[in-house]
Amino acid sequence: MAALDTTRATTGSFGFAGRIGAFFASIVNAIVEWNDARATRNALSSLTDRELEDIGLCRGDIEAVAAGGR
Questions:
Q1: What DSSP character marks residue 24?
Q2: Which residues form the YjiS-like domain (predicted)?
């Protein structure tokens, strides 16, 4: 029977190759976060002022919501 130890931190445990993998993973994560913010910004910008008001927002709130601040 095999067991998987999930309590051990894996950051840096694979030496140089692990750091390279973590570096590329952080780049991919940054791109995914940027795309999510872009999609949120575009979706909210396409709403009318009345629709934004219905969900408790105004045009000035769009950037903060897209950045995850609200």
A1: H
A2: 29-63
- The whole-model pTM stands at 0.68
53/49 Cα distance (integer angstroms): 6
In the structure encoding, which two tokens stand for residue 2, read together?
A: 């095999």
Contact 45, 62 (CB under 8 A): yes
pLDDT in tens, 4-57: 556 666 555 678 888 899 999 999 999 999 999 999 999 999 999 999 999 999
The residue to which tokens 């993973």 are assigned: 25
Q: What is the dihedral of CA 54, 58, 63, 69, to 10 degrees?
A: -70
